[in-house]
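Sanity check

After download, print the first record. It should look like this:
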Amino acid sequence: MEAKHAPLKKVRVADTVVQACYAHAFSTEQEEVMGLLLGEICVAKDSDPYSDVGSDDFRSSPILYKEANVWDSWVVQRSVRRSDRVETAPEVLSGASEEAERCTEVVGTHTRVIGWYHSHPRITPYPSHVDLRSQLSYQMLESGWVGLIFSVFYCDSTQRNATSIHCFRTGPGETHEMVELEVVPISQMPLKSPPVIDITYRLLQTFRTEVEAAVELVRQRCGGMADAVEAARGLQDAQFYTLNKLIAEPALLYLLRANDELETKVVALENRLRISK
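Expected structure tokens:
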């Protein structure tokens, strides 16, 4: 088997990426969200103990497979926003590639776009037929393409809220194949420096762009009718208010508290340094 066709066998995801993806997934209960995964894909060799069994010159033959390390994510603008489906425009990949180049400079390790993630609000994390077809289209470009699904706002059989992550690939005949997933500390990734993950800024910027694009679409389809445009802008203001309450204000509160804690630690360290002298 050629390396370019080797299947994905295992994915290691940094804990910081999981936190960022969950923050994105929990930002809306009504629609699926989507983003891209950044990192590296490595080709490895395994041996097949059943190759040439029974022959005089029995020996194991190498089998190629791929493993992925994911250390960053990128929130993308959606072209389709529905509760059971999400899509993005092809040109979005170019923007993510630019982010991968910037990430390379920060972490000191070559970084590229290697996968995608999306949310399943109120349903299980298993991929739909649409998900499998989307995954297959990506795998035609990169056989080791990573697919992650984050299930949120879902109640299990015990009526308890449950969240889960599912890693998958599309097998022969558009079948669903699970891929081994391991969440590891960012410190265990092969990086010289950790990436800067500013999920709050990315979410606000992307959502604002999506809402403004939706208002512009209404204006174009209605021929600039005043009532339709006014209604769309009213909805825009309501969504901006929700984003502010749901994302911006909690982030600001967290930063203020974190700043107070850091200032306290700085004072304590300065006192210890003064005493040691």
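If your output differs, re-run the checksum step. Summary of this record's structure: The domain at 3-49+60-196 is CATH 3.40.140.10 (Cytidine Deaminase; domain 2).
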